[in-house]
Write a structure and sequence with these properties.
The complex is a heterodimer. Chain A is built from 8 helices and no strands. Chain A is globular and about 55 Å long. Chain A has one domain. Helices cover about 85% and strands about 0% of the residues of chain A. The two termini of chain A are about 30 Å apart. Chain B has 2 domains: about 240 residues; about 30 residues, no CATH class. Chain B is mainly α. In chain B, α2 packs parallel to α7 and α4 runs antiparallel to α5. In chain B, β1 and β2 form a beta hairpin. Chain B contains 9 helices and 2 strands, in the order αββαααααααα. A two-stranded antiparallel sheet of chain B has the order 1-2. The chains are: A mainly alpha, B mainly alpha. At the A-B interface, α7 and α8 of A face α4 and α5 of B.
């Protein structure tokens, strides 16, 4: 029990550190969020500002925007330890790799949830969608966010320190997140009432994907940070 | 100045051998026989509708069966080998496993690309489309291909080779989790695929068709083995050349350092000189190499 409490404390420590850095540097607020809104606007231009088309495809456009913006947040998160020997200090701090991975995942998740809240507001205002099932929307958004954060944190660590990290990360992580994109889009189809699908069944699949990605990430992270 | 580095002293300067040449010749003969059987001697798929009497079926398009299905099987095999070798990289940490994993992933990705291309060519006359977004097997195969494309991109990055090999091993082990989804997708999502369920286990295809298909497995297996063999040897030579060039660069750098400067740096006594050399040997990139 005390081991679990120690791990939870370490997770909270790492997550709080990452979030404190984010609050002070305001990269997500000043750069990632404006980028996400910009992508929503560009989709509107590309689809000729046709409200019916935008409403129909809003779930897919929403999640593509989340994934593209998440790449920036993940890249930023992975780069935090790249300077001033921070990575080495963390490795020597005695924190377990699992706690470091989960702490960083929690920090990325919090940033993704903020991003999703802003983007939901964006599609309501800009695309004219209405929410039919708020509970499904929130649960699917959180579960898909966990999956994206878990995979993103793992692959962010994987690409860090290598040449061409910025271009490598999307190539590595986006194929893994393709099933999450499909599931999250279907769940939002139901929540936004744009298609007759069983959103809760897709959310269940998303939960399985989130669990698998988190377990794989926590297991593999030790092998990566040992370098 | 040190001599120009060469890699002929401790390594082979060719990827060929008597055995691989024999295998290559046998594979070429096998491919020719397979071509004749698949595209000339076997019958097209033509059936007669019982009530109308009209001809229907896949006609000559069915001949893609003899290439597409064995290619898919060899893709599974190559990626399976990559997964085993990647485990070897993480557990044993020897270059042999690393070069094997890289070779298997590269050849497997070529095969996987060919599976997608031949499937698309087969799908055009049979399904009336080059590409079907709703087909789960097609999607999972595409994701598999893209994940290994990422693996190969990771392999080409600059960085410590040991770090790259360990990270690539993790990527490969995650990517192969998609293999069961590709293989079982026609059973698990039978209403969301245009692919038919496997009939091999029940031997519903008969006579020359079955023989040609089995020959396809054998011949494309030989192609896979030949490619793996050569890609492995190329990888091994690349690694030997890298190690050799690093060792040569160190030797050259030592040669350029004046004795006076060396003495100032490490002290003047023979013991200090010896200690310097001993420490330096610890960083020798050849250490621990087979």
């Amino acid at each position: 029990m005390s081991v679990l409490r120690t791990v939870l404390g370490d997770i909270r420590l790492v997550a709080a550190r990452d979030l404190r850095i984010e609050v002070r540097s305001r990269v997500v607020l000043d750069q990632v969020l404006p980028f996400a809104v910009l992508v929503l606007v560009l989709f509107g231009f590309a689809l000729d500002a046709d409200h019916r088309t935008l409403r129909t495809f809003a779930p897919g456009l929403f999640w593509v925007t989340v994934l593209l913006s998440a790449l920036l947040a993940i890249g930023r998160s992975a780069s935090l330890d790249a300077t001033d020997g921070t990575g080495t200090s963390l490795r020597m701090s005695g924190l377990s790799p699992v706690a470091r991975y989960l702490g960083r995942t929690v920090a990325v998740l919090v940033q993704l949830l903020v991003l999703e809240v802003v983007l939901v507001g964006g599609i309501v205002v800009l695309y004219g969608v209405s929410v039919d099932d708020w509970l499904l929307l929130v649960v699917a958004g959180v579960v898909a966010g966990v999956a994206v954060a878990a995979a993103g944190t793992l692959y962010g660590a994987l690409a860090s320190g290598l040449g061409a990290r910025e271009t490598l990360l999307p190539i590595l992580v986006l194929p893994v997140l393709a099933p999450v994109l499909i599931g999250a889009t279907r769940a939002f189809d139901d929540a936004l009432g744009v298609a007759a699908v069983d959103g809760w069944a897709w959310t269940g699949l998303l939960a399985v994907a989130a669990l698998v990605l988190t377990v794989v990430g926590a297991s593999a992270h030790g092998a990566l940070v040992e370098d | 100045m040190a001599e120009e580095p060469t890699i002929t002293a401790s390594t082979r300067d060719t990827t060929g051998s008597r055995g691989s040449r024999l295998l290559g010749v046998a594979t070429l003969v096998g491919l020719a026989v397979l071509g004749v059987l698949a595209f000339v001697l076997t019958d097209p798929d033509v059936r007669i509708h019982p009530s109308t009497g009209d001809e229907f079926g896949q006609f000559d398009a069915v001949r893609m069966l003899y290439v597409h299905v064995p290619l898919a099987a060899m893709t599974y095999l190559a990626y399976g080998l990559c997964a085993v070798a990647s485990l070897g990289v993480l557990i044993r940490r020897t270059p042999w496993w690393d070069v094997t994993a890289h070779a298997a992933a590269e050849v497997g990705t070529v095969f996987c690309g060919l599976v997608l291309v031949t499937g698309s060519i087969w799908g055009r006359p049979v399904w009336n489309t080059w590409w079907e977004w709703g087909d789960v097997r097609l999607m999972t195969t595409l994701v598999l291909f893209l994940m290994f494309a990422g693996y190969l991109a990771l392999r080409r990055t600059t960085g410590d080779p040991r770090t790259v090999s360990r990270r690539a091993a993790v990527v490969a082990l995650i990517a192969v989790l998609d293999l069961p989804l590709v293989n079982r997708s026609v059973e698990w999502w039978e209403n969301r695929t245009l692919h038919q369920q496997s009939t091999l286990g029940e031997l519903k295809i008969e006579d020359l068709t079955l023989f040609t298909l089995m020959l396809g497995f054998l011949v494309l297996g030989m192609v896979l083995a030949w490619l793996l063999l050569h890609r492995f040897r190329v990888g091994w030579l690349e690694r030997a050349a890298l190690d050799h060039s690093v060792a040569a660069a160190i030797a050259e750098r030592r040669g350029e350092t004046p004795d006076e400067e060396l003495r100032r740096a490490v002290g003047d006594s023979p013991a200090a000189r010896e200690g310097f050399d001993e420490n330096d040997r610890d960083g020798d990139p050849e250490a621990g190499r087979p």
